[in-house]
Amino acid sequence: MIKFTKDNLKQEFEILNPRLQNILFWLDGFLSYRWNLPLTLTHLLRTQAQQEAIYGKGTLNKSVHQFGRGADISVKEFIAQEIDPAVIAEEVNRNFPYAKPGFKTALYHSVGDHGRHLHIQVAESV
Questions:
Q1: 27 — alpha (psi -120 to 50), left (phi > 0) or beta?
Q2: Residues 82, 37: contact at Cβ < 8 Å?
Q3: Backbone phi and psi for residue 111, each to the nearest 5 degrees, phi listed first
Q4: What does the pLDDT profile of the chain (126 residues) look like in tens digits?
Q5: What is the Cα 125 distance to its own chain's centre?
Q6: CB-based burial of residue 6 (10 Å sphere; 0-12 exposed, 13-18 middle, 19+ buried)?
Q7: Using CA atoms, how far apart are residues 64 and 116, in angstroms rounded to an integer?
Q8: What H or E segment, with its residue span, contains residue 37?
Q9: For a surface tag, which of 18, 27, 51, 92 has the fewest beta carbons within 10 Å of its beta carbon?
Q10: Residue ranges of the domains in the chain?
Q11: What distances in angstroms separate CA 123 from CA 3, 53, 67, 96, one per listed residue?
């Protein structure tokens, strides 16, 4: 069962890129089957103002979050169960290679004040 940390994430989920939705549904099933853990979404869509708050004013960096192609997932429950989130990211990348060379579908990283989390992304339509 996918959990949402904020109510607005339920509506945002509905308008995500369908390929990203499919990966998230798969990951939810994988976590449930393997460790009986939920998939907890913490962040989906982002505005340019939110992007600048993270990376600085006037940033030219665009994020897949601005286009419905990125999702952030809490790792708190994984760590509490002594499951390395990097292992989960590797499993996603093995099953869903990114469509653009040099990029990955799943990253375990930290950005700004968002703390460590799993980031799942898909490329523009292929």
A1: alpha
A2: no
A3: -135, 125
A4: 899 999 999 999 999 999 999 999 999 999 999 999 999 999 999 888 877 777 677 666 778 988 999 999 999 999 999 999 999 999 999 999 999 899 999 999 887 666 899 999 999 976
A5: 18
A6: exposed
A7: 18
A8: none
A9: 18
A10: 2-121
A11: 24, 24, 10, 11
Reply yes or no on domain 2-121 having CATH 3.30.1380.10.
yes
Token pair, residue 20, equals 């990203």
Task: Return the number of other C-beta atoms located less than 10 Å from residue 112's C-beta.
Answer: 9
The whole-angstrom separation of Cα 80 and Cα 95 is: 25
Cα–Cα distance, 31 to 73 (Å, whole number): 12
DSSP per-residue string spanning 6-66? STHHHHHHHTS-HHHHHHHHHHHHHHHHHHS--EEEEE----HHHHHHHH-TT-----GGG
Do you know the residue count of the chain?
A: 126
Q: Up-side HSE of residue 51: CA atoms within 13 Å toward CB?
A: 15
For the record, the structure tokens of 73 come out as 């997932």
Q: What are phi and psi of 47, to 5 degrees?
A: -90, 170
